[in-house]
């Protein structure tokens, strides 16, 4: 009887948890997935995930930029893109094979839209290369973290 009671307590304590595994490697398979990965890293305030999503034609910036410089840049990017909700527009072609999308961020009562530019790097991986930090700052997103 004690064993059954223990198993019932143990069973009631179990909980199903959904775990989202990080995307393998760096960058993303498509331009929109690169923006989604960057935005998710911003929401989670994950400096490592952001470093895997931010880069240029040569790959992720974390692989060819001084670590301290990259970390400083990443902290600023995370502070300015922290959000409760983000809506990503459809990707549009831009010069040089780049792709762009508008991302509307909501943080409490603050709302701002920023243009994100995505570039293709090695191994057909896409990286967020640029976004409108000034707009985010002007809208109050880069305040205290």
Describe the structure.
This protein has 145 residues and is of the alpha+beta class. Strands 3, 4, 5, 6 and 7 form a 5-stranded antiparallel beta sheet that branches. A hairpin with a 5-residue loop joins strand 4 and strand 5. The longest helix is centred in the middle third of the chain and has 15 residues.
Give a brief description.
The protein has 145 residues and is of the alpha+beta class. It contains five helices and seven strands. Strands 3, 4, 5, 6 and 7 form a five-stranded antiparallel β-sheet that branches. The protein has a two-stranded antiparallel ribbon with strand order 1-2.
Features:
145 residues; alpha+beta; 5-stranded antiparallel sheet; two-stranded antiparallel ribbon; 5 helices; 7 strands; 25% strand; disordered N terminus
């Amino acid at each position: 009887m004690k064993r059954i009671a223990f198993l019932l307590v143990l069973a009631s304590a179990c909980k199903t948890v959904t775990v989202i595994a990080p995307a393998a490697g760096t960058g993303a398979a498509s331009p929109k997935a690169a923006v989604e990965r960057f935005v998710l890293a911003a929401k989670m305030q994950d400096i490592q995930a952001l470093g895997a999503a931010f880069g240029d034609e040569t790959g992720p910036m974390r692989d060819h930029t001084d670590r301290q410089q990259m970390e400083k840049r990443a902290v600023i990017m995370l502070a300015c893109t922290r959000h409760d909700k983000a809506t990503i527009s459809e990707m549009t072609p831009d010069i040089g094979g780049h792709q762009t999308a508008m991302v509307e961020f909501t943080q409490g009562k603050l709302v701002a839209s920023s243009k994100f530019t995505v570039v293709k790097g090695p191994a057909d991986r896409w990286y967020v290369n640029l976004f409108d930090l000034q707009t985010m700052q002007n809208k109050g997103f880069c305040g205290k973290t």
